[in-house]
Design a protein that fits this description.
The chain has 337 residues and is of the alpha+beta class. Helices cover 41% and strands 14% of the residues. The protein contains twelve helices and ten strands. The strands form three sheets. The chain has a five-stranded antiparallel β-sheet with strand order 1-2-3-5-4, with helices on one face. β2 and β3 form a beta hairpin. The chain binds adenosine-5'-triphosphate (ATP) and magnesium ion. The site of adenosine-5'-triphosphate (ATP) has 19 residues, from β1, β2, β3 and β5.
């Protein structure tokens, strides 16, 4: 029996199975639909005195996704209300978040390409339907073991082709700061468009390869400053034998000026597929470092790579291969220095 906070709206016809997530505004519950015995997800506004804003946000989310029909985009069944709260009924996705996938399992180069291509295909579909997600990040992408993806959380998405964002305090800016584009900070003069989602995808791709997003700090103002004016640490320096074409794809996605990025996910898709094909057919050697970080670990080769670099040796001797994988990012930073 799953227990809930007093007053939480659980619509009739759904048997709760498991609480999946809770934040200040929503409770996310896995449930069974009595009508067809299928698993669904209930995204419910939590009971609050002033629920009007929350209700309109969830209603907005429903309006944005209700007519979309694409395998990589979450499907919404219906929206229900008891007058005080609303509940979005969505398909249940058994995949894990991209964040936990990166952290727990790591991403081998094949996974990297498949996941990136699947996300880019979803962005292409959104673009064709005039939708900007605006909150693309590693928590809002769920990944199945076969690398198929499901994009969720359209709470701040928009169906405008482009919109201007005002200058706001960091805590007022919508979206996850580490992943938003420079123009979403309201400090550039450029409009927010589908190119903003491509920037966020660039951040995500960088994180999949290196284990960390390029611009991270505990200070929100600093993160904003990085998006506006800092160049990300060169992936080529971190991973010297990474395919150059792949590095330049990510650099284009991370351009500060949206006009200098890919102008459509279709262009990105084309380039990604060309490089993936080349890597698969061994026309391009796959980076030693990406192999190391991702589970194609050849510890012997890595040991010879770091031979003579004393500070790595004691760690290697003392660690299990799995933790060596996780530490690789830090070593590579050191090697770079
Ligand atoms: N359809 C789904 N299937 C499986 N899990 C889901 C689904 N929707 C949401 N979740 C889980 O709940 C989490 C939060 O979902 P979502 O991002 O939609 O809520 P939110 O209130 O907008 O949260 P946040 O503000 O933190 O982004 C997801 O990261 C995921 O773990
Ligand atoms: Mg979310």
């Amino acid at each position: 029996m799953v227990s809930f906070e007093t007053g939480l709206f659980i619509p009739k016809g759904y048997d709760p199975i498991q609480k999946l997530y809770k934040n200040e505004v929503h409770e996310i519950i896995k449930a069974r639909s009595n009508a067809d015995n299928c698993d669904v997800v209930l995204k419910i506004t939590r009971p609050k005195i002033d629920n009007i804003k929350l209700i309109s946000k969830l209603t907005h989310e429903y309006d944005i996704i209700k007519d979309l029909n694409f395998p990589s985009i979450i499907h919404v069944h219906r929206i229900l209300s008891d007058g005080k709260s609303v509940c979005l009924v969505e398909e249940y996705c058994s995949g894990e978040s991209l964040r936990s996938r990166i952290f727990n399992k790591g991403i081998v180069i094949k996974d990297f390409f498949e996941i990136s291509i699947n996300i880019a295909e979803a962005l292409n579909y959104l673009y064709l339907h005039g939708i900007i997600h605006k909150d693309l990040n590693v928590n809002n992408i769920l990944v199945y073991p076969d690398n198929k993806v499901k994009i969720i959380d359209f709470g701040i998405s928009s169906s405008n082709q482009a919109e201007d964002h005002d200058y706001l305090r960091p805590d007022m800016i919508e979206g996850s700061l580490v992943y938003i584009s420079p123009e979403q900070t309201g400090r550039t003069g450029y409009s927010v468009s589908h190119c903003s989602d491509l920037y966020s995808l660039g951040i995500i791709m960088y994180e999949m390869l290196s284990g960390k997003p390029p611009f991270d700090s505990t200070d929100p103002m600093e993160v904003i400053h990085f998006h506006l004016s800092r160049k990300p640490a060169s992936l080529l320096k971190l991973f010297p034998d990474m395919p150059v074409g792949l590095i330049s794809i990510i650099s284009i996605l991370l351009e500060k000026n949206p006009d200098d990025r890919y102008q459509s996910a279709a262009g990105l898709l084309f380039d990604l597929k060309v490089i993936f094909d080349a890597v698969q057919n061994e026309k391009i050697p796959v980076s030693l470092c990406s192999k190391l970080r991702t589970g194609l670990v050849n510890l012997k080769r890595f040991k010879s790579y770091t031979a003579g670099k004393k500070k790595f040796q004691s760690y290697i001797n003392a660690s299990k291969p799995s933790s060596i994988k996780r530490q690789c990012w830090f070593w590579l930073q050191d090697i770079r220095e």
